[in-house]
């Protein structure tokens, strides 16, 4: 049986909206500062996560190959979107890992395991899709190019 959850009264909702960042240690002052923090997150992942470095290398290779092989704009866009999805999920995986470690520290917790395993699973699913897309779009013209050289 589903439980009925009533929405908060309007005055409570407005106080939530105005105070939503009250627990933040610091709030980015402007868009440029926001980009700076986003870049800091990307460089942190690159420096600390081996899987992120591997994915960046494969995504760069796939995009470079798609340009080199003169794929259609739609095909290049599909490879770009797929690559972006893998990298974005890898960044979210790092964020979830950090949050879990911050919460439970070095203690074992079944829910910490679920959170980390599911985040890693999301990356794996996106990587498998990226391999499928890469093989479908890149392999045929690559094989034709290699065969033409012999
Ligand atoms: N606090 C914890 N409680 C329970 N299980 C944990 C905990 N920390 C890690 N684990 C288990 O160990 C696994 C590896 O943890 P880790 O923090 O290295 O994540 P990871 O996803 O393997 O990292 P990476 O993406 O860098 O390879 C997790 O997927 C989870 O199953």
TrEMBL record:
<protein>
    <submittedName>
        <fullName>Diacylglycerol kinase</fullName>
    </submittedName>
</protein>
<feature type="transmembrane region" description="Helical">
    <location>
        <begin position="121"/>
        <end position="147"/>
    </location>
</feature>
<keyword id="KW-1208">Phospholipid metabolism</keyword>
<dbReference type="GO" id="GO:0046872">
    <property type="term" value="F:metal ion binding"/>
</dbReference>
<dbReference type="GO" id="GO:0005886">
    <property type="term" value="C:plasma membrane"/>
</dbReference>
<dbReference type="GO" id="GO:0005524">
    <property type="term" value="F:ATP binding"/>
</dbReference>
<keyword id="KW-0444">Lipid biosynthesis</keyword>
<keyword id="KW-0594">Phospholipid biosynthesis</keyword>
<feature type="binding site">
    <location>
        <position position="90"/>
    </location>
    <ligand>
        <name>substrate</name>
    </ligand>
</feature>
<keyword id="KW-1133">Transmembrane helix</keyword>
<feature type="binding site">
    <location>
        <position position="97"/>
    </location>
    <ligand>
        <name>ATP</name>
    </ligand>
</feature>
<keyword id="KW-0067">ATP-binding</keyword>
<keyword id="KW-0479">Metal-binding</keyword>
<feature type="transmembrane region" description="Helical">
    <location>
        <begin position="77"/>
        <end position="100"/>
    </location>
</feature>
<keyword id="KW-0472">Membrane</keyword>
<feature type="binding site">
    <location>
        <position position="37"/>
    </location>
    <ligand>
        <name>ATP</name>
    </ligand>
</feature>
<keyword id="KW-0547">Nucleotide-binding</keyword>
<keyword id="KW-0443">Lipid metabolism</keyword>
<keyword id="KW-0460">Magnesium</keyword>
<keyword id="KW-0808">Transferase</keyword>
<dbReference type="InterPro" id="IPR000829">
    <property type="entry name" value="DAGK"/>
</dbReference>
<dbReference type="InterPro" id="IPR036945">
    <property type="entry name" value="DAGK_sf"/>
</dbReference>
<feature type="binding site">
    <location>
        <begin position="116"/>
        <end position="117"/>
    </location>
    <ligand>
        <name>ATP</name>
    </ligand>
</feature>
<keyword id="KW-1003">Cell membrane</keyword>
<feature type="transmembrane region" description="Helical">
    <location>
        <begin position="52"/>
        <end position="71"/>
    </location>
</feature>
<keyword id="KW-0418">Kinase</keyword>
<dbReference type="Pfam" id="PF01219">
    <property type="entry name" value="DAGK_prokar"/>
</dbReference>
<feature type="binding site">
    <location>
        <position position="97"/>
    </location>
    <ligand>
        <name>a divalent metal cation</name>
    </ligand>
</feature>
<keyword id="KW-0812">Transmembrane</keyword>
<feature type="transmembrane region" description="Helical">
    <location>
        <begin position="23"/>
        <end position="40"/>
    </location>
</feature>
<comment type="similarity">
    <text>Belongs to the bacterial diacylglycerol kinase family.</text>
</comment>
<dbReference type="GO" id="GO:0016301">
    <property type="term" value="F:kinase activity"/>
</dbReference>
<dbReference type="GO" id="GO:0008654">
    <property type="term" value="P:phospholipid biosynthetic process"/>
</dbReference>
<dbReference type="InterPro" id="IPR033717">
    <property type="entry name" value="UDPK"/>
</dbReference>
<feature type="active site" description="Proton acceptor">
    <location>
        <position position="90"/>
    </location>
</feature>
